[in-house]
Amino acid sequence: EENPKSSRVPVTVFIRDMNDNFPEFTKPIYEVWLPENSRVGTVVVKVQAHDPDSGDLGTKGIRYTNLGGSVADLLSLDPISGVITIKEESPAFDRELVSRHYLTIEARDNRGQGNRNSVQLILNIEDVNDNTPQFVHSKYEARLLENQSDFDSPLIVEARDLDLNGTMNSQVHYSIVEWDASITNFTVDPTLGLVRPSSHIDFETLARIQGGPPDVGVRTLRLILRAHDLGSPSLYAEVPLLVYIQDINDNQPYFEHEVYEQTIPEDLRGGSTVLQVKATDEDASAPNNQVVYRIQSG
Hints:
By secondary structure, the chain is mostly beta strands. The protein has two domains: 24-126, Cadherins (Immunoglobulin-like, Sandwich); 134-246, Sandwich (Immunoglobulin-like), CATH 2.60.40.60. Helices cover 4% and strands 34% of the residues. It has two helices and 20 strands. A four-stranded mixed beta sheet has the order 2-9-8-5. A four-stranded mixed beta sheet has the order 11-18-17-14. Strand 6 and strand 7 (83-86) form a beta hairpin. The protein is rod-shaped. The mean pLDDT is 93.
């Protein structure tokens, strides 16, 4: 045809969105660290997912619908915000029992009724200084001979701390915090726990200071040892150390006079008393201080 005619009219096409996308979390894996023994209400993590669909089919309609894993029943997941908090205290949050938990979080679009996706949450329990050092023994005892420079066998005290090994929380140092009032010459290596006398102990001096019954061959010194960790705040434990000081025969008897002289008549009858000598021994216990006499020569 010649001179064709045409006309135009605007046409509007409305594309109705379909739920063809899945929620995508902002991280492939969430890994967080939570101090052990955290209280109820403590925020563990906030997860977040996005969906490019529109309206409720997209990000607006995402709901966090499920939390699964070993401690899921102890946690609360807010379905809208994605915030996970502690809802119940439990030994499961004690690092010394379990140091890591694995959980799974689910997100669904369309107000929790549509497409779903999930992500892994790794929950690491951080160590805090919540364990007091504990001595291996409830009491330590040792024997030390008078004037001896060291114990017969090494005296080593030991305490253990259950906090995370290799950290300040579990590192233990030793000290002497209380002394027997009579003598204070002992030392302890702060890291090894090796206890040694710092000088010789004279039993007779100790006996004079302590008083009490005479002729006691063993005297007791009582010390208090402390083991403290290097965490903050520092925790400590104490234990008694009883050192039994034993007297040795280290003093010679001595006469009251250097020379004894006595004149006797030539006809003195046998069995008569000529003179009496007296010697003293400064050892503090029997039999070390008991004196027996005999004529050595003459």
